[in-house]
Structures are given as C-alpha cells and as structure tokens.
Write the structure tokens for this entry.
Amino acid sequence: MQNYVIFGTLLALGTALPLAWKWQLGIFRSVLFVLAVSVLVGAALTAIGRLLHFTTAAGVAAMWVATVLAVLAGLLVVFFRDPDRSVPAREDVIVSPADGRVIYVRPVRPGQLPVAEKKRRAYWLRELAGTAIGDMGAVAIGISMDLSDVHVNRAPVPGRVRLIERVPGTFGSLRDPGMRLSNERVTTVVQGEDLQVAVVQIASRLVRRIVTFVTQGDAVRLGQRVGAIRFGSQVDLLLPDTSDVKVAVGEGDRVVAGRTIVAVTASGRPGATVPAHRIEDLVDGA
C-alpha cells in the first residue's frame, strides 16, 4: 500500500470524527464508515497513481480530499433516503412520527405544554393553547434524530390536519435542552376519530429548512408522509394524557417512523384499559 493512502486516511479520520461527534453520528460506526470508504478511494488512487506518479504530498492531499468528499456524498445519500414503510394493520395504535431514539417520556400538566425542561425551567408550545391537547394535558415523547436516520416524518394517527404553525427560531444547539424551543419548529396537529395528537418538528442550528407535505384541512392516513427536517433534528410527539392511551415506549428505545407502535388506544371506549402484560407485545421491534 502506498504511504500516501495511510496518511491520507489518517487525515480524513481527523477531519470526519470531530464532525461525527458534533452531529451525534456515533464515533465507532463513523470510524468504520470512513475506513471502508478509504479502502475504495485508496484502491482507485493507487490505480490512477501508476499513471500520474503522485508525489507523496500530492498523494496525501488527493487521498484526504477524495475520502472526505466520498464520505460526505455517502452520508447525503443515507440522509435523503425515503423508503416505503408498511404500517401496522390495526386501528388502535399510534405510531412513531420519526426515526431515532426516545430521549424522554414525560407527562405535561393540563394547560401547559413544555417540550423540554432544564433546571426546572419550562419551554411552552404556545401555538397549542386552546387545543384539546393544551387544555387536557398530554404525554410528551421526545425523539432525537441523527444524520444517519431517515428524516421524513409521518402521521402518527389517521385523521385530519387541524393546525400547522411554523415558529421561527434562533438555531441554538439541540445538545442544550434549554435551547430546543429557541430553534425553528413546525407544529402539526392531527385530529383522529377519538383523539388529537401533535407532532413538533424541531430544527437544529445547522438547519434552515423544515418542509411540510400537507396543509391544514388535509386528511392523512396512518404513517403518511407529513414533512421532513433537513439535517440534524428532533421530533416531539404529544399525546392526550388519558387512561385510554397507553404509552408503549420508554427512554432509550429506538423507533422507526410509521412502523414502531409508541402507544395503544382503548378503541375509543371511555375508561377501557389495555392489560399491562400486553404492552411489550405491541411494540414493533423492527
């Protein structure tokens, strides 16, 4: 192996790993990805080098730049993928609106809808004031997405879009919980047959675009695409805090948009409950 392949790979790792940490991509898998790409780039440059006769400096620079560009291109392909999803064949479920990891599941008092708290300070979703969720209280499920997750968001329940509101932000870092609601967000409320839910798309400081695929008044199917956030982001799901809704995920769980069951309902029967021993069986582990 040419020396410039080794030194160029080390430079590429030195460039990529700080970004992987900053963007919460996972250091170990980022190292593996960069090394896999460097093998392909190195093989190509070695073949080209036989014709061009790289100097060591030129070879290192070519290896470094080509590897970084190939890694970024691969990451963009992964990020912008939009696979079809099969939703659960049931009418009593609420599915995840986003791919990612659950970072909290917490109750919200009636009349108050904080998406996040830091040092006992609440950050309210004021656009939900006067909605059923705002009046009756809710359960907030926070889902953190990294750049390797699919960033297309889906309807957690079938129903009709009752509200879409965009709130401009200051693009603070999502690593600071206290900054979440200083970031741009789009809140979408969907009215189902027996309940109302809200999906809150929260942009990171690197993001300048949250797109929506539906408009107010549209009917949506379970798992239908409703929007997307470009690059790093977070999605919060707000569910009614009633005995008819049983949350089926916890902090640390991985969820898949449109597929993972995050809660089950009592089919609209007031006071009905779902046996506790069934909750784990209802979660889509895919």
